[in-house]
Design goal:
The structure is a single chain. The chain is mainly α. It folds into two domains: 30 residues; 40 residues, no CATH class. Helices cover 60% and strands 0% of the residues. The chain is built from three helices and no strands. The protein is elongated, with a radius of gyration of 19 Å.
Length: 72
């Protein structure tokens, strides 16, 4: 294999990693809420620590994801 090809492949792989990291950081920058957007119950402190951008309690988030057909 050509050394230049390997350098280009390595640079592309690093760029993809950097893009993925930046996307993850952007998604975590959202400001969460103290109360659930759907049921207005307080979002437990442990959930807010684990997911600082949470806007729903776990129960409402589960329902939301089932309606959307996704799980994360």
């Amino acid at each position: 294999m050509d050394e230049k090809f390997l350098e280009q492949a390595s640079a592309l792989e690093q760029a993809r990693r950097d893009d993925a990291l930046q996307a993850a950081q952007r998604s975590l920058q959202g400001k969460g809420k103290a109360r659930c957007e759907d049921c207005s119950e307080p979002i437990p402190r442990e959930r807010r620590k684990a997911a600082p951008n949470a806007i729903r309690c776990i129960a409402c988030q589960t329902i939301f994801e089932k309606r959307k057909g996704t799980r994360s």
